[in-house]
Write a structure and sequence with these properties.
It is a single chain. The protein is an alpha/beta fold and about 230 residues long. It has a single domain (about 5-230), classed as 3-Layer(aba) Sandwich (Uracil-DNA Glycosylase, subunit E), CATH 3.40.470. Helices cover about 40% and strands about 10% of the residues. It has helices at about 5-15, 20-35, 70-75, 80-90, 130-145, 160-170, 205, 215-230; strands at about 50, 60, 115, 150-155, 185-190, 195-200. Strand 5 (about 185-190) and strand 6 (about 195-200) form a beta hairpin. Helix 4 packs across helix 8 and helix 5 (about 130-145) crosses helix 6.
C-alpha cells in the first residue's frame, strides 16, 4: 500500500471510531439539533480525520473539532472562526493555497503541512477527558508514522502541547524531565522533531488580543523555516 493509500485508509478508520460513548453521544446530538444558522445543512457528526499534504514537514496539532465547525463540515479547522484565523495565517506563510476554509469541497490545499487534532470528536464544552484524549492519541501517532518528512509539530494551546509530549514519548521513546512548559513561541527539540507552542486561535484569545496576527504568523513562519531546513 502506498503512503497516500495508507493515509486514506487510516483517515477512513478514524471516521468510524466509536471508542468514547460520551463523545459519540455529543457529536451526534449536535449534528441533529444543529445551530440555527446552519439548520439547512447536513452535519458530518463523526470523528474528523486529519487533512493535508502527504509530503508535509509541518504538522499542526489542535485540541478537537468545533461542534459547529469541523463536526459540521467534516474537515478540521473548517467552518469556524478559529479556522478562519489559522488558515489565513497559513496562507500568509505559504502553507495553504487560499486564505479561507469554509467547506470540505472549497478547494483548500495545504502546502508542506498536515493538520490534525489530539481528540477527533467534538467534546462537550470543548473539554475532553484524559481518557478520551488517551483513546484518540494513537491516531496522531499513526499519522506521524505515515508522514515521514514531518519534523515540526505546532501545538495550538496547552492541551495540544501536552498531547504532543505524550505522542513524542510513544513515537520516539523519549520523555523529557523536567517536562517542558507550554508558552507561546516555546520551542523544544525531541529526537528528530521540534515542538513549537502557539496560543490557540480561539475567539477568547483573538478577541482579547492575547493572540495577534503577527504572533501566529511568527510561529507558523518559524515552523515553515524549520521544516525546510531539517
Amino acid at each position: 500500500m502506498s503512503g497516500r493509500d495508507a493515509l486514506a485508509a487510516l483517515e477512513a478508520e478514524i471516521t468510524r471510531c466509536r471508542r468514547c460513548p460520551r463523545l459519540v453521544a455529543w457529536r451526534e446530538e449536535v449534528a441533529q439539533t444543529k445551530r440555527a444558522a446552519f439548520a439547512s445543512e447536513t452535519y458530518w457528526g463523526r470523528p474528523v480525520p486529519g487533512f493535508g499534504d502527504p509530503a508535509a514537514t509541518v504538522y499542526i496539532l489542535g485540541l478537537a473539532p468545533a461542534a459547529h465547525g469541523g463536526n459540521r463540515t467534516g474537515r478540521v479547522f473548517t467552518g469556524d472562526r478559529s479556522g478562519d484565523w489559522l488558515i489565513a495565517s497559513m496562507y500568509r506563510q505559504g502553507l495553504a493555497n487560499q486564505p479561507t476554509s469554509r467547506r470540505a469541497d472549497d478547494g483548500l490545499r495545504l502546502l508542506g503541512c498536515w493538520m490534525g487534532a489530539a481528540v477527533r470528536c467534538a467534546p462537550p464544552a470543548n473539554k475532553p477527558t484524559p481518557e478520551e484524549r488517551d483513546n484518540c492519541l494513537p491516531y496522531a501517532e499513526r499519522e506521524l508514522g505515515l508522514l515521514p518528512r514531518v519534523r515540526v509539530i505546532v501545538c495550538l494551546g496547552s492541551f495540544a502541547w501536552d498531547a504532543a509530549l505524550r505522542i513524542m514519548a510513544a513515537v520516539t521513546a523519549t520523555t523529557l524531565r523536567p517536562r517542558p512548559k507550554f508558552g507561546h513561541g516555546a520551542e523544544v527539540t525531541i529526537d528528530r522533531f521540534v515542538l513549537l507552542g502557539c496560543y490557540h486561535p480561539s475567539q477568547q484569545n483573538t478577541f482579547t488580543g492575547k493572540l495577534t496576527e503577527e504572533m501566529i504568523d511568527d510561529v507558523l513562519g518559524r515552523a515553515r523555516e524549520l521544516g525546510n531546513s531539517r
